[in-house]
Amino acid sequence: MSLFNKVLASVGVGAATVDTKLHKSSYTINEMVTGVVEIVGGNTEQQIDAIYLTLYSNFIREIDDKKVNDQAALQSIKINEPFTIQANEKREIPFSMDLPSIVPVTTGHSRVWIHTGLDIKNAIDPSDKDFLDIQPTRLASAVLSAVQNLGFRLRKVDTEQAPSYLRNRTKIVQEFEFQTTNNTYRRYLDELEIVFLEQSERSVEILIQVDRRARGLGGFLSEAFNMDESFIRLTIFENDNIQAKLADAIESKMR
Predict the structure, then answer these.
(1) Could you confirm whether domain 3-135 is CATH 2.60.40.640?
(2) In this prediction, what percent of the chain has a pLDDT beyond 90?
(3) Is 62 helix (H, G, I), strand (E, B) or coil?
(4) Domain regions of the chain by residue span
(5) CA-CA distance, 23 to 132, in Å (whole number)?
(6) Per-residue pLDDT tens for 113-163?
(7) Model pTM?
(8) CA angle at residue 222 from 219 to 225, to 5 degrees?
(9) To the nearest 5 percent, what fractions of the chain are helix, strand and coil?
(10) How many CB atoms lie within 10 A of CB 210?
(11) CB of 118 within 8 A of CB of 127?
(12) Using CA atoms, how far apart are residues 179 and 243, in angstroms rounded to an integer?
């Protein structure tokens, strides 16, 4: 091929392209994502140094008391050794990637995607972006249903930057915020937030934030200094009476 074609390829004109093809688009947390990365050569041969797949999620973080949208790389893998793609050559490389338990469910404004990038020396690197539909595990779904059966309504779901005490475990957390509809709970609680810390087929570890309703002058002072929030760390197993276990934990913070 001519030098002219190589120069054009270096600035992205007539260069190699990449397209990631997933075997399916919907996945459950802890499932393995599989597919192939298809590379098609351009008008001239090019050296492909590396192909990277990176799992991303959007999230919200606070900067100077303002909420801004950001994105977090949750996992990245390299799927090849260096090779040369010839002009107009088509090559497929299979891959598999485990979904970590911290990946958020794609509900509300939460989005998850795989970014594919080719590392081509002295050239503009082509890339591809594929969105995933992430569903909760069976046990996580059972936990959320049990909370609603206790008398709470799911108000919103946000993916946010992990608080400082959790950042050694994860960059982001997905918060399920519930508002009480039960008269008994309404007397004591403002809201309930649940974060899934670890998930497997047989167990889930959750963090429950209980926001107690202010009662009297002492209660208002507690709210003023953010002392009205209590935390419960709880592991729920598949054979547990989930609703009863959650009720016991929540009610322990109402006494």
Answers:
(1) yes
(2) 49
(3) strand
(4) 3-135, 138-252
(5) 11
(6) 999 988 876 545 567 899 999 999 999 999 999 999 999 999 999 999 988
(7) 0.83
(8) 155
(9) 20, 50, 30
(10) 22
(11) yes
(12) 17
